[in-house]
Amino acid sequence: MKSKKKQTPSWSDVKTALARLDQQGLLGLISDMYHLSKDNKDFLHARFSIGDDALAPYKKIIKECLYPDILNEPVRIIRAKRAISDYSKAIPDAKGEAELLTCFVECGNRFTLDYGDIDEAFYDSLVEIYGQAIKKVLTLPDNEQGNFRKRLKKIMLSSNGIGWGYHDGLCDEYYEAFEDEE
Question: Quick check: is 44 in a domain?
C-alpha cells in the first residue's frame, strides 16, 4: 500500500480560504495579524502611509543592527538587509529605499570608524549595499539625487585607510556611477 505524501499548505490554499471570508472576516484577520507582531504593524503603516515617518521603524532596525551596543549585541547584517526588503515589499518607494540603503552604509561605516577593523564579510556587505544605494539613487529625478550623492561621497571619503578592499570598492562604485566627479 502506497502512503500518501502530505502536502505543504501553499498560497493557493490560503487564497481559497480568504475568498470565503466576508469583509468583517477579512478585517478581523488583518486585525489579528496587525496585533501579532511589530513587523506586521510597520508593514501596514508603510503600505497605507500611516504615521509621520514610515521609514522610522526600518531605520531603527538598521541602526540597531549595524551600530549595536557592542557589549551586548552583535552586528546583524542579515537582519538589517531584511528591514530594507520588508519596506520594499510594503510600498514601492524608490526614495525611501535609497534612504534606507544609504542609512545602512552610513551606520556600518560609522561603526568601523568608531570601533576599528571588522572583517571581510562585513565590508563586502557594505560595498554591496553601497552599490545598491547608488543604483537606487540614479533612478530618482535629478533634483532628488543631490543630498544622496553628498552622503554617498562622504561615506566613500571617510573610508580612506580601511582595509579589506573596502575603500577601493566604494571608490569604484562611486566614480563608475558619478563619472562627472572624478
Answer: yes
